[in-house]
Write a structure and sequence with these properties.
The complex is a heterodimer.
Chain A lengths: L4 E3 L2 E4 L5 E6 L6 E7 L6 E7 L2 E5 L6 E5 L5 E5 L8 E8 L8 E2 L3 E5 L1
Parallel strand pairs in A: 2-11
Antiparallel strand pairs in A: 1-3, 3-8, 4-5, 4-9, 5-6, 7-8, 9-10, 9-11
Chain B lengths: L3 E4 L2 E5 L5 E6 L7 E6 L6 E6 L5 E4 L2 E6 L4 E6 L8 E7 L10 E2 L3 E6 L1
Parallel strand pairs in B: 2-11
Antiparallel strand pairs in B: 1-3, 3-8, 4-5, 4-9, 6-7, 7-8, 9-10, 9-11
The chains are: A mainly beta, B mainly beta.
Chain lengths: ~110, ~110
């Protein structure tokens, strides 16, 4: 079975640009969560979606947005990129959003120059 | 109150040694405490997890010790191997919460020397 897949794996953007990151959950999982992991730190919660509805939001500015599609895949959008947005963006899926048995993807490495 | 503090930041042990990583929390509503292992270029992978109604849990060479009164928990890796060299994160969550939000510690980079 395929795990959580994220695309692209690496991305370089310029300050001020916009970026879209994609995530496909494990088959059967209906919830997707997004985390930002800055180098040398633990992941920070950004969003959780379940059945296309936003269930939780972390302490991130409105430049960050996300959505979930009917097939449970998800996109994370970041507008007006700042140098500080450079990080590994992780997607995790679970059956109904519970923290038990979270499965993380390998992430998208975003570099803002 | 939402923080999880992890120490040490880095750790070097010889093969066969028992590295110990410690975490502390403040929010008594937390009721799920997982440990994740992360290799370079990969996402975190769940290693072992514990709930506050038990004081210890073992899975293979990995053991979590939990002290509810002190609001601390730790990971012990028995008979450590070079393949265990990775970054380890503790985390905490309110399991009954429908957001599934995990609060992570800052990570411990472990190096096991052959």
């Amino acid at each position: 079975d395929a795990g959580v897949t994220q695309s692209p794996t690496h991305l370089i953007k310029t300050r001020g640009q916009q970026v879209t990151l994609r995530c496909s959950p494990i088959s059967g999982h209906k919830s997707v969560s997004w985390y930002q992991q800055v180098l040398g730190q633990g992941p920070q919660f950004i969003f959780q979606y379940y059945e296309k509805e936003e269930r939780g939001r972390g302490n991130f500015p409105d430049r960050f947005s996300a959505r979930q599609f009917p097939n449970y895949s998800s996109e994370l959008n970041v507008n007006a990129l700042l140098l500080g947005d450079s990080a590994l963006y992780l997607c995790a899926s679970s059956f109904q959003g519970e923290p038990y048995g979270y499965t993380f993807g390998s992430g998208t490495r975003l570099t803002v120059v | 109150q939402q923080q999880v503090k992890q120490s040490p930041q880095s750790l070097i042990v010889q093969k066969g040694g028992i590295p110990i990583i410690n975490c502390a929390y403040e929010n008594t509503a937390f009721d799920y405490f997982p440990w994740y292992q992360q290799f370079p270029g990969k996402g975190p992978a769940l290693l072992i997890a514990i709930r506050p109604d038990v004081s210890e849990k073992k899975e293979g060479r990995f053991t979590i010790s939990f002290n509810k009164s002190a609001k601390q928990f730790s990971l012990h890796i028995m008979d450590s191997q070079p393949g265990d060299s990775a970054t380890y994160f503790c985390a905490a969550s309110i399991g009954s919460s429908n957001t599934g939000k995990l609060i992570f510690g800052q990570g411990t980079t472990l190096q096991v020397k052959p």
